[in-house]
Amino acid sequence: MEQPLQGRPVGDRLGDDRLGEVGQVGVAISSLEDMETLMHGIPMDQVSTSMTINGPAPILLAFYIACGENQGLDPQALRGTVQNDILKEYQAQHAWLVPAEPALRMICDVMAYCADRVPQWNTISISGYHIREAGSTAAQELAFTLANGMEYVRRGVAAGLDVDRFASRLSFFFDSHIDFFEEIAKFRAARRIWARKMRDDFGAQDPRSWMVRFHTQTAGVSLTAQQPENNIVRTAFEALAAVLGGTQSLHTNSMDETLSLPTEKAVKIALRTQQVIAEETGAASVADPLAGSYLVEAETNRLEAEAERYFEEIERRGGVVPCIDAGWIQREIHNSAVAYQKALEAGTKRIVGVNSFVEEGGGKPEIELHRIDPAVEAEQHARLAALRKRRDNARAARELEAIGEACRDGSNLLERFVSAAHAYCTLGEIAQVLRTEFGEYREPKIL
Amino acid sequence: MAERKIRVLVAKPGLDGHDRGAKTVASALRDRGMEVIYTGLHQTPEMIAEVATQEDVDVVGLSILSGAHMALFPRIRAALEARGMGEVLLTGGGIIPAEDMAELESKGYTRLFGPGTSTADIATWIEEEMARRRATERAEA
Description:
Chain A has 447 residues and is an alpha/beta fold. Chain A is 53% helix and 6% strand. Chain A has a domain at 83-359: TIM Barrel (Alpha-Beta Barrel). In chain A, α2 (57-70) links the parallel β1 and β2 (79-82). Helix content of chain B is 48%, strand content 16%. The interface between A and B is large, with 47 and 37 residues.
């Protein structure tokens, strides 16, 4: 079986089809064939597609481009986003394919290829969300996310790309946590810092290169398993903070996500929460409505200053990649997670239903749960086996060899991936070539 | 004779990268005076059982937030039994629905802990369970 998030093929220690993970953490797209099934009947020049994928993002993007070509479309017409933010994977979310340096090279390949051929594609969504969910403070989320963003820009420039040719295609993704004004200030601070760095440090001329275009998701970690209906209220406040902070797009979590994948009903309430904000409250009608508020301005200044201190410290430690290799960023996040848990258990931080206003029996929910049929794993396995029988295996093998060569000679890997996608090479096969050529990433021990 | 410190293996099976809970619990158990080994990410059931055996642990705690708990708990239990470690206190937590938790608990995975659990409660439960087991062993000896 091929594990979608990390492209683990048959025979790999983690490619075992009895691990029960397929279908639990996203749609399994193992080859161009699965992408064709997913996009069947959807005119790809008329939609924008967002793929929350990181380590294998260049491969998934190749499947998408190849799928569009098979619909008869020029890649110029394709619009969408891949998360493709590998630095925060090492720091927080932990879904990687290969070590940082080759992963960063592939990201530069994506930026270069898309600047030429898929100009409407958002090539990286630089993500603070996972850093925050892993336990960081608001200031750390801001600092590490923007430090990662600056690292991508530095790499792009070092690869010979003109900053204004790719910077406007970078977008951001933040968490919106429960501390209302701090979150609004965080979004404002992000805009100030990024504009200054891009203009002054990187010399970007195009105002679009200075912009922080960002998506926001409400904080999964703020949800409680106790009295879960209260999560609707938490999510609404967090969503409002994101809107007041100027987010371009928004995901609201469902009330039951501390228990399982969400049900249809819970998802609909989460969607309606956004629609109430958009249609009824008027909060979305003015840009930066809290500018000038003494509290919000002071918080914005504080977060900006804290982020600047982190940038200096990262610089002193040799940059983002050395900080990851030493486990320093991971340890900073872990220490904040432990401090948060201690505050919770000491009662200095209060959460309704967890350590205050607790109900007998834990306030256990009587809500319906969404279940994934375990049979989907075997079905995906069978689909892949059938594909391998049907395709031109000699052609697929040649494509895989060509990827290996490109790894060594430095030519654009996304170009090779698109070609391999057309030959129906699978995600697991391509990822295996990358692991063979570039080695596996070993996480530093921080505990 | 002073009893040896409780030895705990905190483990992350499968591809699930959500390690905030595992590391927070590991730190808290260490603060309570237990000897804690953390496997790191991406462990197979066999790797976990192997470390548990080599480190001669009393407790194995699994952290699973991927939804794959119904597949993983039985496989790790079997891998432990295959190495003569069937007696180890197997526990865990994560995003595990109440009915799955009840089913796993009824199959002998002792107690499982869901979101919002205080780390102090986990530590206390492990201490009490180990004290009970050690008392039983002494009585039998």
